[in-house]
Predict the 3D structure of the following.
Amino acid sequence: MPRVGTCLIDGFEDYEDKLIDHLEKEHADLNRRLSVDGWHDWLKRNTKVEERLLPPGANPWIRRQYSSKIQTGIGAVEPETLR
C-alpha cells in the first residue's frame, strides 16, 4: 500500500517522499530554524500520512473507505481511528 501524505497548511497531497520535498520547498520559512524536536512537533501538527489502497487525489469519500490507518506526522507510529 502506498503511503500518502497531506500538508494540512495548504492541502497539498502526494506520496510521502514528495510531501517532504513540498515541505522543504514551500514551507521552509516556517520550519527552517526549528530544532529536531521542534521539527518533529511541527510535522505532527501540520501533516497527515495514511497508508492507502488508492493513489493521491482519489475521491475523499472513497479514500476514507479504503484507508487502512491514518498517522500524524512523517513516520508516526500511532494509528488514529477513522471517523
About this structure: DSSP finds four helices and five strands in the chain. The first strand starts at residue 3 and ends at 7. Confidence is low (pLDDT under 50) at residues 76-83. Residues 3-80 form one domain.
